[in-house]
């Protein structure tokens, strides 16, 4: 088996768009890891040489990153990094302010808050009798003034009622729960990618159809009681989730 | 604080589309958890009563789920579940065949495979001297004949070369690595949501711009050596990631 020229592997069968995707993924990863300290990507010719591919594949790759809102081409200057996504830790259960404390302050806009009689599916998840009220909170969360996530939160009624009197604008729900009810235990988490519906896109100030990370998270107190069910829409262009998996448990 | 009527919380300030999103999220979650055994959603009137919201909000919610490809309306029958996403475990490091063994067999189409001279960024991640070749493998992975993910894999050269002679069509790279090089240790994982570029969408047989889960994963052997760097595009309409987070480490 010979060594083929870098990314032009199996050239005859490999499309320019396959190479472009490959280049784009490597550049995206480098942007994310802060490899371009000046905020300017290397010149096209340098990327072509470094990746051992064609100028067309590199141009297409830069177009893909531009479509994702990560870079912008500035005539006479080059390709600038315009967005670096913030990392949400997956290594332990953390609120947004906790996990992003190095990146700035999260400010929450309370869009709704109060007691509701929930559908049976919510009662079941929270281990409550059917028909018992829960507290519902809806927040738009901003980092640096720009929307980062839209959160729908269903809380066990006693805790939730106390929580409504707290500083929901500046504090994580997790921190408030621990102050009011004692330590948290575990959370069951499901992560999906969905396209933003038009209204969610408008609220999040994202393009229609933008890719979102949708997290459903059921959080329990340390004693095992489920108290907090959340549906969180994160803007895909602003946040990644980052953690470590182990082969043996 | 009084109990407002279910999801019509703070009615005056709350838009129909906010309520629709809320209903859609709860239904999506129930679909995902297999709550509708018959594969048919309850009639609109029942959802309206159960959620304590308006018929318009329920209709909009069903439209959102239809746009996501999860349900379909069949005149005279009702709203049918057309897709249930398969769950990729986040609790430990698993290959796709391992994590989805209850859901069917994964069949891989090898789109490219061979030695390349990688860009410096790849060498650095794999702990290799610059200019040393790596093995690149590109696979389209199908479950039940339908594309689930498109994987780009960069492997340490010795291991990668042995791996090229294995049954890459039917086996997980993780299983093959363990057979050839001994037990895996940990992987560093980053998860993002991105819109599919036109070519990736075509390969994955997904709509243009479809939301994808993009995973970047660097896997190490048990002795700590990094051997496998992957960029994986999962179709957002076919797969979720599911795990448990703990508050204390």
Automatic annotation (TrEMBL), chains A, B:
Keyword Transcription: yes
Record key words, sorted: DNA-binding, Transcription, Transcription regulation
Highest taxon of source: Bacteria
One matching Pfam family: GntR
GO biological process: negative regulation of DNA-templated transcription
InterPro entries associated with the record: Bact_HTH_transcr_reg, Chorismate_lyase_/UTRA_dom_sf, Tscrpt_reg_HTH_GntR, UTRA, WH-like_DNA-bd_sf, WH_DNA-bd_sf
HTH gntR-type domain ranges (all copies): 17-84
SUPFAM superfamilies: Chorismate lyase-like (SSF64288), Winged helix' DNA-binding domain (SSF46785)
Any one GO molecular function term: DNA-binding transcription factor activity
Listed name of the protein: GntR family transcriptional regulator
């Amino acid at each position: 088996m010979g060594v083929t020229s870098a990314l032009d592997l199996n050239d005859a069968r490999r499309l320019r768009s396959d190479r472009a995707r490959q280049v784009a993924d490597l550049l995206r990863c480098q942007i994310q890891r802060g490899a371009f300290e000046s905020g300017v990507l290397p010149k096209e010719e340098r990327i072509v040489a470094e990746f051992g591919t064609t100028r067309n594949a590199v141009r297409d790759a830069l177009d893909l990153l531009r479509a994702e809102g990560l870079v912008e081409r500035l005539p006479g200057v080059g390709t600038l990094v315009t967005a670096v996504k913030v990392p949400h830790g997956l290594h332990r259960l953390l609120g947004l302010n906790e996990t992003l404390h190095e990146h700035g302050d999260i400010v929450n806009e309370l869009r709704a808050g109060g007691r509701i009689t929930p559908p049976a599916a919510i009662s079941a998840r929270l281990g409550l009798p059917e028909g018992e009220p829960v507290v519902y909170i809806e927040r738009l969360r901003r980092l640096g003034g720009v929307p980062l996530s839209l959160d729908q939160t269903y809380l066990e009624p006693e805790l939730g009622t106390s929580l409504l009197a707290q500083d929901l604008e500046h504090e994580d729900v997790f921190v408030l729960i621990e102050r009011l009810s004692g330590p948290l235990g575990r959370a069951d988490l499901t992560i999906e990618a969905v396209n933003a519906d038009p209204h969610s896109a408008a609220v999040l100030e994202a393009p229609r159809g933008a890719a979102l990370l949708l997290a459903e998270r059921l959080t329990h107190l340390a004693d095992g009681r489920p108290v907090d069910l959340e549906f969180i829409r994160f803007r895909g262009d602003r946040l990644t989730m980052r953690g470590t998996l182990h082969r043996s448990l």
